Automatic annotation (TrEMBL):
Official protein name in the record: Helix-turn-helix transcriptional regulator
SUPFAM superfamilies, per the entry: Winged helix' DNA-binding domain
Organism: Paenibacillus rhizovicinus
GO MF annotation list: DNA binding; DNA-binding transcription factor activity
UniProt KW keywords: DNA-binding, Transcription, Transcription regulation
Domain of life the protein comes from: Bacteria
Keyword Transcription among record annotations: yes
UniProt domain HTH arsR-type: residue ranges: 1-101
Organism ancestry: Bacteria, Bacillati, Bacillota, Bacilli, Bacillales
Length: 101
C-alpha cells in the first residue's frame, strides 16, 4: 500500500469518495455490460464518467489518483479499462484508523 498521506490525499475529494462508494456495490449503481462481470472485472471508465457527470479527462485523473493510492485496481480489456475497489487496501485503512483509538 502507498503511504498514508497518498491515501488520505486521494480521499480528500468528494467525487473520489463517491466513486469508491459506487464501486463497493457496482451492480446497484451501474448498468450491466455485455460479457463483463461488474463485481469481478470492474466498471468501465465511460460508465463512471457518465455517473459523475464530468468529462472523461477529469474522471480519468480521479481514477488515476485512486489507483496510485492503491484504493482501486485497473484491468484493461481491449480498448477499455475497468476499475474495481481494492478491498484489502480499504480494510487496511480501517485497521490503521482503529489503531489510533
Amino acid at each position: 500500500m502507498d503511504t498514508q498521506l497518498d491515501i488520505f490525499k486521494a480521499l480528500a475529494n468528494e467525487s473520489r469518495i463517491q466513486i469508491l462508494e459506487w464501486l463497493k456495490n457496482p451492480e446497484a449503481h451501474f448498468s450491466p455490460q455485455e460479457g463483463i462481470d461488474l463485481v469481478e472485472v470492474g466498471v468501465c471508465v465511460g460508465q463512471i464518467t457518465l455517473k459523475l457527470n464530468m468529462n472523461q479527462s477529469t474522471t480519468s485523473q480521479y481514477l488515476s489518483i485512486l489507483h496510485r493510492a492503491g484504493l482501486i485496481s485497473a484491468k484493461r480489456i481491449g480498448k477499455w479499462t475497468y476499475y474495481k475497489r481494492n478491498e484489502d487496501a480499504i480494510n487496511q485503512i480501517g485497521r490503521y484508523l482503529q489503531k489510533g483509538e
